[in-house]
User: What shape does this take?
Amino acid sequence: MTHAQPATAPRTMYEKVWDAHVVIPESPDAPAVLAIDLHLIHEVTSPQAFATLRERGLRVRRPGRTLATLDHSIPTLPRRADGSLPILNNDAARQIELLAAHCREFGVHLHDLDSADQGIVHVMGPDLGATQPGMTIVCGDSHTSTHGAFGALAFGIGTSEVAQVLATQCLLQRRSGTMCVDVSGQLPEGVTPKDMILAIIAHIGVGGGTGCVIEYRGEAVRALSMEGRMTVCNMSIEAGARAGMIAPDQTTFDHIRGRAMAPTGEAWERAIEQWRSIASDVGAVFDRSVALNASGLEPMVTWGTSPEDAIPVTGLIPEPAGDSRRDRALRYMNFEGGEPIAGRAVDTVFIGSCTNSRIEDLRAAAQVFRGNRVADGVRALVVPGSASVKRQAQAEGLAEVFVQAGCEWREPGCSMCIAMNGDLVEPGKLAISTSNRNFEGRQGPGARTLLASPLTAAAAAVTGVVTDPRELINEPVTAGGVS
Assistant: This one.
């Protein structure tokens, strides 16, 4: 890796990380060659990449910079008496077998189903301390932007690019534009980081960040925990951005300290010094800038088939407007414009995914479930993002809260976010989900999805309808409302 000479003009955080990783600068005829610090792989987008290496007689260039896990295709059903998972899908079983075989053949460390660290790839990396400020991180998954919460430049890549990184530890890439989203004020009680990012996407649209890396900043962003920052950066791709980033600070350092792959001793002190220098310079100019005030935000929920279709839970479903996409979304969701979103009966509740399956998310959901029961006719799944999160939730008594409330407490995995592992929303049923995409059929053929925070999802589970969670936090509730 070669480091660029110090620039005279102030630089954004993205520009600093980019410049530090350029091996060969881009030209009008060719993209840059960018060094990659960490490559995360899973069972779905890696088989063809490994096959390419084998066909060409190539090895994995830096096995120590590659981490593998199983997450997308694996079932999250409870384990059998012998400790095994009930893998009922032949395609999934084959993907799992292939990743294990490829990791053995090419010397890549795999966090398999028996690993104490297995989990959703974007939960596992931070759990281990593998995700660190100033890194370039890639994965064959669009929500790799999650890792930008640490001040890393992290983005998803395609299968052919997975092969490219495995073979060279580099990637061909064009430089992105820069965008600043400044969120001032403070989040009100009952309003979460998920509500913040849904409000941002509703404001700028699904194309608002196209061609850019978004830097989230401002008082409200600085106040977020690392879990909250990961939720925000996770959904950057839903605003069309290449990636999302938040400058590292003491909150970041405290989160990384002591984790398995974190620096120690003198290396830790040197790392802290380097990480502090990553923040955007005073006077750095962004290509685009957007400002919001968090103080006026409310719990958000989507009504349509795009993450930009988000409104306050107290709001009205938009009227048809001769917009073909909006009209199609209303038809698919079987909603009438002008009606309240609150009070809509829900069939399924999913709390999980790389967006909202961390310990803070489970603690939030438990606030609502504690002392209450899932409403009759509602199915509620709570899926921890990793084995580590699951152990912590059990140690804190959260798992017991979920089970006593009537939720299904599952094994770690992507689960109902992507509907390729047996966890499906039935056709026509309405689900409220803490995941990141509400496209037609995303959670199963004909499934209808409302995106929301863990608080809002849990409130819907215990009332049976879309509900403002601020009405229920720390209060006993019954199906239909507060008791």
Q: What stands out?
A: Residues 1-5, 475-483 have pLDDT under 50 and may be disordered. The CA atoms of residues 348 and 379 lie 5 Å apart.
